[in-house]
Amino acid sequence: MIGQRAPLVTSSWTDRAAALDAADPLRAHRDRFLTGPDDDVVAYLDGNSLGRPLVASAGRIEDFVRTQWAGRLIRGWDEGWLDLPLEVGDRIGRICLGAAAGQTVVGDSTTVLLYKLARAAVELRPGRDEVVVDTDNFPTDRYVLEGIAAERGLTLRWVESDRHSGVEPADLAPALSERTALVVLSHVAYRSGHLAPAAALTRLVHDVGALVLWDLSHSVASVPLELDAWDVDLAVGCTYKYLNGGPGAPAFGYVAHRHLEEFRQPVQGWLGRADPFEMAAGYQPAAGIRRVLSGTPPVLGMLALQDMLDLLEEVGMPAVRAKSVELSAFAAAVAEDWLGPAGVTLATPAEPDRRGAHLTLEHPGFRALTPRLWARGVIPDFRSPQGLRLGLSPLSTSFAEVLAGLAAVRDLLADRT
């Protein structure tokens, strides 16, 4: 009942998990993640909502407070803090996005950056009056676009998408026309984990002369990205999931070089102005990607993020993706064996190359089951109406941990019946 049946192994799942962990080339890196002093977590299956902190981040944050904040005080702005959004942005671009320097910047929340990029994008296509978005995109994306459409007198054209899958070229093509200004899509669907064919969808959008803005929140640092090669126009993503930046860590925005000169900032703050310390009358945008900035850089919010970038650069995104595929295939196979007989179904594409790093399982009892799992130290997400989402963060999650989590789901389902 899980969908496309995964091949079951003949040995016990415990033995299989142990063998996979022993063969995992990334296994040593799990020790670089911090656990709590009284750690009661049996299985952390929510790394796609909030990643675990790195041990290095605890030291970096304490050192920053003592030596830079306390020691340098306001001098720190002139000694490097002001340039961090561009420097960290370039690292995200190089390590995770397939983006050349000068196109990525860190600052604001995902919602605010999404608004800024989408609002600027529709101005880059004057005379066009439609914005395309899918019905199961993340709520913030839909709400922001509803607001922009109301501000600018635009029409939202909705692409109906299956919550068990995501947008494919055949779904998007009928919604596009010469009236389309902007298309906003998620690279990995927040609910199903569907991995969109970004290059093909971007080509479709460009064929009608429109721009595309990709939300990378559930794919960055879990799936290799090639924004420059795919000819992406704009992108946005958060840094507290697979980039492990911590609660509320700032988002990043990407604007392709070819659009920067005409990009007009809709939230005109002083640090996005040319020579902000001139304090002069009138807003003149800074050159390049700096013009996407508005206010004071979130320096503290970029500290832990830098440690995860160090780790990702060390291991490489191909290795991260390989581990992710193995983890999700293992979880799907165990769920087929243990949970399928209880009526659990897979609400995620069955083919590994069509999904990101998380799986969603569905059952009518999962809403009531989720707090009981949390009480047992098994921490997945619940997604309405009946989805249990398993976020399998490749660098911090073991196969044994996945197995322990699914065992708890199995046992609680059995108790329920």
Count of DSSP-assigned helices: 13
CATH architecture of the largest domain: 3-Layer(aba) Sandwich
| Structural domain tally | 2
Mass-distribution shape: globular
Mean pLDDT over the full residue set: 95
Beta-strand fraction estimate: 5-15%
CATH topology of the largest domain: Aspartate Aminotransferase, domain 2
Rounded to an integer in angstroms, the radius of gyration calculated over CA atoms is: 22 Å
Order of adjacent strands in the largest pleated sheet: 2-8-7-6-5-3-4
Structural class: alpha/beta
Helix content: 25-40%
Instruction: Tell me the number of strands.
Output: 13
Low-pLDDT runs of 5+ residues are 3-10
Instruction: Calculate the terminal CA-CA distance, rounded to whole Å.
Output: 17 Å
Structure characterization notes:
The structure is a single chain. By secondary structure, the protein is α/β, with parallel strands linked by helices. It folds into 2 domains: 13-55 and 316-416, Aspartate Aminotransferase, domain 1, CATH 3.90.1150.10; 80-312, Aspartate Aminotransferase, domain 2, CATH 3.40.640. The protein has helices spanning 13-23, 55-72, 75-78, 84-97, 110-123, 139-152, 169-172, 198-207, 257-260, 303-315, 317-338, 366-375, 399-416; strands at residues 43-44, 104-106, 130-134, 155-159, 180-186, 211-215, 234-237, 252-255, 345-346, 358-362, 378-379, 381-383, 387-391. The strands form 3 sheets. Strands 2-8-7-6-5-3-4 form a 7-stranded mixed beta sheet, with helices on both faces. A 4-stranded antiparallel beta sheet has the order 9-10-13-12, with helices on one face. A two-stranded parallel ribbon has the order 1-11. α8 (198-207) links the parallel β5 (180-186) and β6 (211-215). The radius of gyration is 22 Å and the shape is globular. The relative contact order is 0.18. The model is unreliable at 3-10 (pLDDT under 50). This is Kynureninase. Catalyzes the cleavage of L-kynurenine (L-Kyn) and L-3-hydroxykynurenine (L-3OHKyn) into anthranilic acid (AA) and 3-hydroxyanthranilic acid (3-OHAA), respectively. InterPro entries: Kynureninase, PyrdxlP-dep_Trfase, PyrdxlP-dep_Trfase_major, PyrdxlP-dep_Trfase_small. It is an enzyme of class 3 (hydrolase). Its EC number is 3.7.1.3.
